[in-house]
Design a protein that fits this description.
- The complex is a heterodimer of chains A (395) and B (452).
- Chain A is mainly α and 395 residues long.
- Chain A has helices at 2-15, 25-35, 54-83, 87-90, 93-126, 133-143, 151-163, 179-190, 220-228, 240-245, 257-269, 275-295, 299-302, 307-310, 314-321, 332-352, 360-394, and one strand at 36-37.
- Chain A has 17 helices and one strand.
- Chain A starts with a helix and ends with a helix.
- By secondary structure, chain B is of the alpha/beta class.
- Chain B folds into two domains: 3-255, no CATH class; 372-452, no CATH class.
- Chain B has ten helices and 21 strands.
- In chain B, the strands form four sheets. Chain B has a seven-stranded mixed beta sheet with strand order 1-14-13-12-15-10-11, sandwiched between helices. In chain B, strands 2-17-16-20-18-19 form a six-stranded mixed beta sheet.
- The chains are: A mainly alpha (395), B alpha/beta (452).
- Chains A and B meet through helix 2, strand 1, helix 3 and helix 17 of A and strand 21, helix 9 and helix 10 of B.
């Protein structure tokens, strides 16, 4: 690696302040620190430091997303071949995956190029180091989009999420809302037809072409939400097993509970995500589901509570979205409270609000907004306890 | 026996280079020095000039705002030089030793017969007063104050820290007199934190309120012990004294002479022979470390630390060892690039994160260098600091309140209870590489400025 280091060192002076490409300093630094952990030594405080850094933290999340991504690619192909009736093709796992790979790749590229581009510009203008946060957001965004979303729409959504959602607050670590969810919310409210309904979840559906008669690209949640008013439960022909394995239409990365669970294991094992949040989201969702079971009233309310956990974006949201350390609650007690409420509100929206089949996104964004308030009260309780200690000492 | 407090939160970092249990008595060095920078909150005013003859215990300078607080020479000889920094700030006063070690004779009573005022006067005159530290803030104690209690930690839990029971062997009488003297300074109790299960010199100390602590570092930090025994609230003052300093205070009362001989642990992976040494405080680092540092390749640089790797100060070999430290650590510098380091398994490096593998090897000792292992970022990860600060405090909220310079919040969130060393582990584990100890010191300085 000495050779590579020499090359970097050769170009480095030109990118320093005052050099020919001084205006690209942050960009160069971003690439350099990606290749080489800098030789900076400690100057104040602890002389030795843990080798863990934010790059490692972020890369663990990307690693945890890989099972969902790889399965998502496979599922894109599977759904597509099912839709066009080429059932023979669906037999080939690799074939399905290969088809999906080429359809998902552009989304990932657009997300990273636009998002990182904006991050680099902001870091450059501010004279900051490039922050790794977008490595995760940039992977999350394609995974929560429908496969047929237009690329320009992804680009606009990414720009909105990064600029309005993150940079105006000061960048990674300062944002209030989860940037990836903000991108999805942006598409959801600005271009509703492209992210809801029956045709967007399967590649190419609804754009003409030969499709099998009667094939519906609707997600189980959509069909469920539509059928519930008529008093029956219709999962669009998919079984609980399909929903757990993930061979159903849906956003690219959200369908397979198994792949997401693998990611959860990686996140919890490496300690990157909070088990408190994950657990309490699941408990919250189950509790609300059980409460609806107890009340009864319509078919949807009587649906077994655990169905909520395996359908739609619940699992993906609980594992990857609700646990974002920056936008989630920051105190341990707050994590339990906010996580629980995310689960409760998500199920509440699904069952009670006929307009939105899925409630996870809005529920997490809502709790992002409330998390500082919850934390405030948790910390205030600590302050109160400590002040009380003072009074007892004096008494 | 005394009650035991079990602490779960914290971390023991196992480093290579633990001092061998053997005390080497070092010969006297040529010159000795004392630096005002080793004492927080002191503005020095000189009392001597280069060329003046001094004895051990002769005042060299005093604190401008508390003129009764004197800083005295540890050895006899002549004042060599006063080194100054920017704006003529006094960095160090050095004395060339004459090797005779004449000492000022102080008028002493046995510690158990002296009154509080007499103890105070003797400590001030002999120059031992500055080793009494005030909490909150970790500054030199104000002689006009009456502390609600005095705390002494009987053990050090930091990485490679000296075993105080070993370092203080044979000092039983001095410890006894020292604690006796401290008792006269407060109407409250004198607390001694001891290591649970230890059965040495320190644990046998009499006439003090003992509390045993069990658990990983920072269980030995006096701040953590105060928090669990008798926490500091707004407006309250406690004093803390290092356990070796208690013995030196006792020695003064027993002999009437200032004898700053103490035991230092020489530790760290870059020493040929990590060992305990007995020396007069204020000796230059070179005299303690000569011939003991490993020679590495042509760019083999080492860092000498006055104290432990977490909260010690970076030192230069020509500088003088402070009296308020018990340990000198030498570790490799880490000014090397590491190709794709953040993605590597890094089996030889230590991390609390389980994305690395040190959790699989709980017995392994590590050679850690001074590399920062990353770039500065805003606080991102949450829930991590709490695991390494065994206090009822929300560390990240406190740090953010300090950054925001919000005095009320700092007060409410616990600024009175912490000094740098208490948050050193938070700084160690922080993946965003913030300089948390400096943040806390800035916060304390702001509090002192705003509230005085």
């Amino acid at each position: 690696m000495e050779k590579l280091r020499n090359i970097v060192d050769k170009f480095k002076p030109q990118f320093e302040k005052g050099g020919r490409f001084g205006w690209l300093h942050s960009t160069f630094d971003g690439f350099e620190t990606f290749l080489f952990v800098p030789k900076t030594v400690t100057t104040s405080g602890a002389h030795v430091r843990d080798v863990n850094d934010t790059k490692r933290v972020m890369i663990m999340v990307v690693l945890a997303l890989l099972p969902a991504l790889l399965f998502g690619m496979y599922n894109v192909g599977l759904q597509h071949f099912r839709a066009i009736g080429e059932l023979a093709q669906t037999e080939s796992v690799l074939g399905c995956w290969w088809y999906g790979f080429w359809r998902v790749l552009p989304l990932i590229l657009v997300s990273y190029i636009v998002g990182l581009g904006i991050e680099f510009i902001f870091a450059q203008v501010r004279g900051h180091e490039i922050n790794e946060g977008y490595l995760v957001s940039g992977m999350l965004i394609p995974l929560i989009m429908p496969i047929d979303v237009p690329l320009w729409m992804v680009a606009v959504a990414v720009a909105f999420a990064v600029i309005i959602g993150k940079e105006v607050f000061g960048g990674t670590g300062m944002n209030i809302f989860n940037p990836a969810l903000l991108a999805r919310a942006f598409v959801f409210f600005a271009y509703t037809p492209f992210i809801s309904g029956e045709t967007v979840w399967v590649r190419g559906l609804g754009k003409g072409g030969a499709y099998v008669d009667g094939f519906s690209g609707a997600t189980p949640l959509t069909t469920l939400s539509e059928s519930a008013s008529s008093g029956t439960l219709d999962f669009g022909g998919y079984s609980l097993c399909d929903m757990i394995v993930g061979t159903i239409p849906g956003s690219i990365g959200e369908t397979s509970v198994i792949a997401i669970a693998l990611g959860a294991v990686i996140l919890l094992w490496s300690g990157v995500a909070s088990w408190r949040i994950m657990l309490s989201v699941v408990v919250g969702g189950l509790a609300m589901g059980l409460l609806f079971n107890a009340i009864g009233g319509n078919a949807y309310m009587e649906m077994p509570a655990y169905y909520h956990l395996v359908m739609g974006g619940f699992a993906f949201g609980a594992v990857f979205m609700a646990t974002d350390p920056v936008t989630a609650s920051q105190t341990n007690k707050g994590k339990f409270i906010c996580g629980f409420l995310i689960g409760v509100i998500a199920v509440l929206i699904r069952v009670v609000n006929p307009g939105y089949p899925e409630g996870m996104m809005l529920s997490i964004l809502f709790m992002n907004a409330l998390a500082p308030l919850v934390d405030h009260y948790v910390v205030a309780a600590n302050v109160k306890r400590r002040n009380k200690r003072m009074k007892t000492v004096k008494a | 026996m005394s009650k035991t407090i079990k602490l779960k939160r914290g971390l023991d970092i196992r480093l290579a280079g633990e001092a061998e249990k053997r005390i080497v008595a070092l010969p006297m060095a040529e010159s000795y020095g004392i630096s005002p920078l080793d004492f927080n909150g002191v503005v020095p005013k000189l009392l001597v000039r280069p060329g003046d003859a001094v004895k051990a215990g002769t005042p060299l300078f005093f604190d401008k705002y508390h003129p009764e607080v004197l800083f005295t020479s540890p050895v006899s000889g002549t004042v060599d030089c006063v080194s100054r920094g920017d704006k003529r700030k006094i960095l160090c006063v050095s004395v060339t030793a004459d090797g005779k070690q004449d000492s000022e004779q102080f008028d002493v009573k046995p510690a158990d017969k002296a009154t509080g005022a007499e103890v105070k006067e003797l400590l001030l005159k002999s120059g031992l007063w500055p080793f009494i530290t005030q909490r909150p803030y970790g500054i030199v104690a104000n002689p006009a104050d009456e502390p609600k209690a005095i705390f002494v930690s009987g053990f050090d839990s930091a990485p490679l820290a000296p075993d105080m029971d070993f370092a203080l062997q044979g000092q039983e009488e001095n410890l006894k007199a020292g604690f006796e003297a401290l008792r006269k300074l407060t109407a409250g109790k004198v607390h001694l934190g001891v290591k649970a299960g230890a059965d040495g010199v320190v644990s046998k100390a009499a006439n003090v309120e003992k509390t045993a602590f069990k658990g990983p570092h920072p269980a030995g930090n006096v701040g953590v012990q105060i928090h669990h025994v008798d926490p500091i609230n707004k407006g309250e003052i406690v004093w803390t004294v290092d356990i070796q300093m208690v013995a030196i205070i006792g020695r003064l009362f027993n002999t009437g002479k200032l004898d700053m001989t103490k035991v230092y642990a020489l530790t760290g992976s870059e020493l040929i022979e990590p060992v305990y040494v007995s020396a007069i405080s204020g000796a230059p680092f070179v005299s303690l470390l000569r011939g003991n540092i490993k020679r590495q390749g042509r760019d083999g640089k080492v860092r000498i630390i006055n104290g432990n790797v977490l909260s010690g100060k970076k030192a230069d070999a020509r500088m003088y060892v402070a009296a308020n430290t018990n340990q000198i650590t030498v570790i490799p510098e880490g000014d090397k690039y590491e190709f794709l380091g953040w993605a590597m398994p890094r089996c030889d490096k230590f991390s609390v994160s389980r994305s690395y593998f040190s959790w699989l090897m709980p017995k392994k000792t590590y050679v850690l260098d001074t590399n920062l292992h990353g770039g500065h970022r805003p606080y991102i990860v949450t829930g991590l600091f709490e695991r390494y600060l065994p206090m009822d405090i929300y560390p990240m909220y406190l740090f953010k309140a300090i950054l925001a310079k919000d005095i009320d919040k700092m007060e409410n969130l616990g600024i009175y209870e912490v000094i740098e060393e208490d948050v050193a582990l938070c700084e160690f584990v922080d993946p965003s590489k913030n300089d948390i100890q400096q943040t806390v010191r800035d916060g304390i300085n702001l509090m002192i400025k705003e509230l005085s």
